[in-house]
């Protein structure tokens, strides 16, 4: 049994055209299928990084190429990966000018210092052979110049369960757009991305809300302590409601159950188990 679920964040209010919706459904289906195929002869850990790198390369999403621009006109990206088996978490925070932040995060898994920020993250990437790459696309510059603020642009994430029962989670984001330089997104924290032997979760939404609610870590811990995936989401999203939090999350547990929930419509997601697709509508 192997399972995969991916997300592409929330629908941007300015992007809610039928064309964009169809493009996102098609893209997510294609990436879910490619990722599932990859999972057939790779580990969950290798697969979540591969899957998120495909999402980062697609301009439709706010991660990697197509990331949003911060208030000072610079793109800074964050990404994290967590191996449910070893419980190792690694990530990059506010990295600039690399094509795939998730691949830098994955590289850090084998280091003693596993979460790097800003220039330290960029220097590490350069040292490891990641080339300078601008992830800016004209559409994002246009939005930046028009000062269109949108919190619903589309962070990406993936959770996978491989044939040997191992779980991993990965998340990557261009942030919320127009943020103060130095702001830390939830995506490269255990609130936005968490996995252990029982469950893996990747989140999207307002980073501050996700951190206040410790969303991913809470869901995983609840499942570890015996909650069903559904109940763990129910309780965690009830708590999120109390702070009027804006978030969505995807998850897989060790039994192969897949689940997703969002506090506001509509999180963009797709799952695939080798036979059936479930895609957001
Ligand atoms: N969670 C991301 C952040 O706050 C944004 C998003 O998921 O859309 O940086």
TrEMBL record:
Residues the record marks as active site: 155
Keyword Protease set for record: yes
Keywords: Autocatalytic cleavage, Hydrolase, Protease
Top-rank taxon, per record: Bacteria
A GO term, aspect molecular function: peptidase activity
Residues the entry annotates as binding substrate: 183-186, 204-207
Alphabetical GO biological process terms: proteolysis
Keyword Protease in record: yes
Site (Cleavage) residue list: 154-155
Pfam families the record matches: Asparaginase_2
Protein's name in the database: Isoaspartyl peptidase
Provenance organism: Halpernia humi
Taxonomic classification: Bacteria, Pseudomonadati, Bacteroidota, Flavobacteriia, Flavobacteriales
């Amino acid at each position: 049994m192997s399972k995969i679920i991916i997300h592409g964040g929330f629908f941007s209010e300015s992007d809610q055209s039928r064309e964009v919706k169809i493009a996102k459904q098609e893209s997510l289906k294609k990436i879910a299928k490619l990722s599932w195929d990859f999972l057939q002869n790779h580990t969950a850990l290798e697969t979540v990084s591969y899957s998120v790198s495909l999402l980062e390369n697609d301009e439709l999403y706010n991660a990697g190429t197509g990331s949003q621009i911060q208030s000072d006109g610079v793109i800074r990206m964050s990404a994290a990966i967590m191996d449910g088996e070893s419980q190792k978490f690694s990530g990059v925070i506010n990295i600039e000018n690399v094509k795939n932040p998730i691949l830098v995060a994955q590289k850090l898994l084998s280091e003693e210092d596993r979460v790097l920020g800003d220039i330290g993250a960029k220097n590490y990437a350069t040292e490891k052979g990641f080339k300078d790459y601008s992830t800016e696309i004209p559409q994002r510059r246009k939005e930046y110049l028009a000062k269109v603020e949108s919190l619903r642009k589309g962070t990406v994430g993936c959770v996978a369960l491989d044939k040997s029962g191992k779980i991993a989670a990965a998340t990557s984001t261009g942030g919320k757009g127009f943020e103060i330089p130095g702001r830390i997104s939830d995506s490269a924290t255990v609130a936005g991305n968490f996995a252990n032997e029982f469950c893996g979760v990747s989140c999207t939404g307002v980073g501050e809300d996700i951190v206040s609610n410790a969303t991913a870590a809470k869901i995983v811990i609840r499942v570890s302590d015996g909650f069903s995936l559904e109940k763990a989401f129910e309780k965690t999203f009830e708590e999120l409601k109390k702070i009027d939090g804006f978030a969505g999350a995807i998850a897989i547990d060790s039994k192969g159950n897949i689940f997703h929930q969002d506090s506001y419509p509509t999180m963009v997601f797709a799952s695939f188990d080798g036979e059936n697709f479930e895609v957001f509508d």
